[in-house]
Each structure stands twice: as C-alpha cells, then as structure tokens.
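Hi,

Apologies if this is the wrong queue. I'm a grad student, and the batch job for Glycoprotease 1 from Punica granatum produced an output file that my downstream script rejects. I'm not sure whether the problem is my script or the file. Here is the sequence I used:
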Amino acid sequence: MASSTFLSLSSTISRLHLYPKLWLPFALTSVNSPRQKAHQQLRLMCSPLGSSSIHISASKPALSPSHCRAISNGDDLVVLGIETSCDDTAAAVVRSNGEILSQVVSSQADLLAQYGGVAPKMAEEAHAKVIDKVVQDALDKAKIAETDLSAVAVTIGPGLSLCLRVGVQKARNLAGRFTKPIVGVHHMEAHALVARLVKQELEFPFLVLLISGGHNLLILARDLGQYVQLGTAIDDAIGEAYDKTAKWLGLDMRRSGGPAIEELAREVQTPMKQHKDCNFSYAGLKTQVRLAIESKKINVEIPLSFSSVEDRCSRADIAASFQRVAVLHLEERCERAIDWAMNIEPSIKHLVVSGGVASNQYVRARLDEVVKRKSLQLVCPPPSLCTDNGVMVAWTGIEHFRMGRFDPPPPADEPEDVVYDLRPRWPLGEEYDKGRSEARSLRRARVHPSLTSIIQASLQQQH
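Support response: The file is valid. Your script probably expects a header line. Output copied below for reference.
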C-alpha cells in the first residue's frame, strides 16, 4: 500500500522543497481551463503537499530525516516566525541556539468574550488589523532588520483558512521583498517541537500529548517529520469542551474557558471507558454539563460576579466536576499511549505536553503523576509557549531549515489573484493500527496527506 501511495505522490514531490537542495525552482501551477482563461490564478506552494496519505504500523521507517545531508550546522540562523491559525496574532524572532530575541502576541480576548468562541470572519479581520504591527514589533524588539533574517517561517495549517491566509500573505510579502527563504510550518508539529527549544537535550523519540481548543493528539515523535498518531479526538477536543462549559456557566471568557475552570472535581463516570484505545471524546461530557446546569436551574444570564452565594457554589461545583472528569480521561489515554509507544520505541524517556490546555496547572500536576508511575519525565513548555505563539513557529522553521526543507524567496510582486496553499485540515502523523477510529475515519473528507507521509515519500524519491 505504501508503494502505490508513493507512486501517486511522486508527481508532486518534484515541486516540493523537502530535500537538501538550495534554491530549487519555485512551484507555480497555472489554471488555464477555458472558463478561467480570463481569470488565471496561481497556486503557490510554501510547504509539502500530496494527493493521498500512506498507512503505517509499528515498523521503523526505512528512511529518516536524520539521514539527510543538513544544509547548515545552524549555529547562526535567525528566523522570524508568524502564527495566525486561530485567534491570536503572533510573531517572534528566534536564534538557532535557542535564544528568543523577541515574542509578540496580540490577543482576541474581547472577541472571544463577545461571541463565546472564535468567529472566523471576525478573527480574520482582527488579524488583518494588527499583523503589520505585530511583525514590526517583533523585529524592533529583537533589534534586527529584515535583511538580518535567515528565513521566514509561517503556519500554513491546520487552522482556520481565513486566519491562516493573513499570516501566509504577510510572510510571503516580507520574504519576497527581502529575498528570504520561506518555511511552511505545521501548527501541531510546532507545539510539539517547541519543547526541544525549552529542553535542548530532548532527543527523539519521545511521546507527545497536544491539547488545545481544536485538537487532542497523542503522537509518537520518532524523528523530525516522522510521527505516528496513537490517538486523536473523535468529536470535541478538551479545549473546546472547556470553552463551552465556561460559556454555559456564564464565566468570564476573556482568558478563554480553561483558566475560568479551576476547582477540584467530584467523582463522576469517565467518558469512553469501555473503549480500549487512545482516542478522545468530550461530546458526552458536554451534554452532562448542560443537563447539570438545567437541573440546578442556574441562570447563566447573570454574570458570576453578581450571582448569589448558592448559585456561585453550584457553578463552581459543576466546573470542578467537569474538570476532574475531563482530565481523568486524559490520564487514562496517556497511560495506554505510553504502553503502546514503549512497545514501538523502548528508548522513550519523555512525555511532552503542549498546546493551550497544557498551561493548566491541574492538567500538568495530574499528568506528572502518570509519567512518574511509568518512570518517564514530563516536559511542559512554559505557559507563554503552550498557547499559540510565534516562537514555536520560528523554532520549527529552524529545525526544518537545517534539513534543507524550505522554499526559495517568493516573487517580490505576486499577483492579486494568488491562491495560497493553505491546509486547514492537515494530519501530523500516520495512524497507528491499534489506534484507528472508525468514527474518526468518517470525517476525513478534504484532509491533506499527513506531514509524515509527504516527508517519507520525498526521502524515498531521493534514494
């Protein structure tokens, strides 16, 4: 199956800059159908893309990025990272020695509070208003000019297409004007790899739990660009469940739902306990929360700060119960994932926990107990690097740039009808056989090939 997939991918690999060669011809695909002659569009590639994905099991990859010739020892790289995948506009400048020269984040907290979550069109407009200032502030705080950059890295997926486009457009404009290479970055890989900036002795392989508003992922990181998906969310992610629960309880959403729910939980039934895999489900728990709110006759139109003592206690009780059950679900899945991962890679020593929900101290404390029972070490980036940020994008750009995975500078004057290659639904790794979910498989329409499958195919073509 892998060989047939490789053949289907091979026609596109020559247009991808995933192998250690400098300044390859930049990929442009013109749309010239009869109906579109008057409105020609250019499709621009700033990251890997293929037409299908491959399926893997526990066997070791035949080829690994570590076998590639690195283009540089990376000692003097300076990379600008730009992140606009969801509701934060972020930019940062990072050196390849791990020094963070600057970090700037513009939050959309007021919009979150107003709409009770992310409104894509409003989020796009908010990004567009501040992106120039955020990037310039990052450069100014780093005390460098655009000409001093080695490359520009930008998130191209997964995320909201409208939001991703703002960051990609800014990155390409800047890279084009100053003739800088550009690196397209996978958002979830960036969350995972930022741990290697924080703890530079962290070596592959390691296990990763990525938990955020839109994602729950358990990933075995075998090497740079080589990931096995052990588990994922089959419906709602934990961060989305936190946000919805906080909204239904009438809590302050300006810092998102997670920080608003902090109380210790009561014992209730754990979701999906009968499923012996590593997948996540929070839809049922959300239903339980709504039923509990209705049974206690809580009027969420009344802000928490104006509620009675009895009403406040009821809300806190529900919030505490929700958090305990939500995190217990994480604990159970992580324990099983550690067992699976150690069967595949017995040398694993670390569990990396990253993503916005990883800044929750209760989550960290509970998962620390899990890894101690398994004789592993927990690695958590500081809270400022758990939520969406430019540092993780810049660092991931550095890691891939060292391996020669980047695009040459875009044209300085790209046409107005450019269609950017964005990946709103882009898997990070290939599914592990035992972790496959039939429920999840029904939701795979319009999903790009995984980052892992594309890199494996490009490496096979080299050899």
